[in-house]
UniProtKB/TrEMBL annotation:
Keywords: Methyltransferase, Transferase. This is Methyltransferase type 12. Residues 41-136 form the Methyltransferase domain. One of its GO terms (molecular function) is methyltransferase activity. Gene3D superfamilies: Vaccinia Virus protein VP39 (3.40.50.150). The keyword Transferase applies. One of its GO terms (biological process) is methylation. CDD domains: AdoMet_MTases. It comes from Haloferax profundi.
């Protein structure tokens, strides 16, 4: 398996993570799916609890795993502030095991894309499906590669103002291809304080995956069936639609 620097990034960025602007459509989608299932749910890549804590608030029997201990520490702190008691632990989606499979396993916020090699992708899918009950579902999402977005945005810098503990900071975002043949993207974030001094500077890597490529991966791991939609539950019709996969384990 190929290791990357994403764990260092998420450990270093944990306290900043919640201050950044985050999408919300996926939160309501995954909470609704979990409530509809009415059983045990595992979130893989639970981070600081953006979705996991909402699952608990909705009365869902939810557990969570994440590779970054720093993110889990922040999740527990966030949970304690709201009087919640999460059951989360540190684990790698490529190698984790569970003794009792879940009715629903979710991998939100494109976390699957941190698997950089075919071996990593297959190992992760096998672990995820093994953690899913025979009559359960694995649900995950990631973006459809967008050539126009790449041309217009890769190699450029974007700056976002954030407030952390009442102090003002700036976050610089930058992304570009590290390996455009393999589709490996390197992202970088730098946090500056009000004096323009660097507080945190970390990078991460993602492997862009096309719809057809992912379908081939699912065939290789023996998934019995799958459906891909957008967050509205409709078939995706453009690269602006997030690809949301609902996957049944092998029978």
């Amino acid at each position: 398996m190929e290791s990357d620097d994403s764990t260092d990034y998420y450990d270093a960025w944990a306290q900043v993570y919640d201050a950044e602007t985050m999408p919300t459509q996926d939160v309501s989608y995954y909470v609704d799916r979990a409530v509809d299932v009415g059983g045990r749910v595992l979130e893989v890549g639970c981070g600081t609890g953006r979705i996991d804590l909402e699952l608990l608030r909705a009365g869902v029997d939810a557990d969570g795993i994440d590779l970054a201990a720093g993110m889990l520490d922040q999740l527990r702190e966030n949970a304690a502030a709201d009087g919640l008691d999460p059951n989360v632990w540190q684990a790698d989606m490529r190698t984790f095991t569970v003794s009792d499979p879940y009715d629903l396993v979710i991998v939100p916020f494109r976390a699957f894309l941190h698997n950089l090699t075919i071996e990593d992708q297959l190992a992760a899918l096998r672990s995820l499906l093994d953690a899913t009950a025979d009559d359960g579902e694995l649900v995950l999402n990631f973006y459809a590669p967008d050539c126009e977005f790449v041309v217009e945005n890769y190699g450029t810098e974007e700056v976002e103002a954030v407030a952390i503990d009442g102090e003002q900071y700036r976050v610089l975002h930058r992304a570009d291809f590290e390996d455009d043949v393999e589709g490996i993207v390197r992202g970088e974030k730098v946090l500056f304080d009000e004096n323009d001094d660097v507080v945190v500077s970390e990078s991460y890597r993602l492997k862009s995956v096309t719809k057809r490529e992912f379908e081939l991966l699912l065939r290789l791991v023996g998934a019995s069936s799958w459906e891909v939609t957008n967050f509205d539950g409709d078939p995706p019709t453009s690269v602006e639609d997030e690809l949301v996969w609902s996957i049944r384990p092998s029978s």
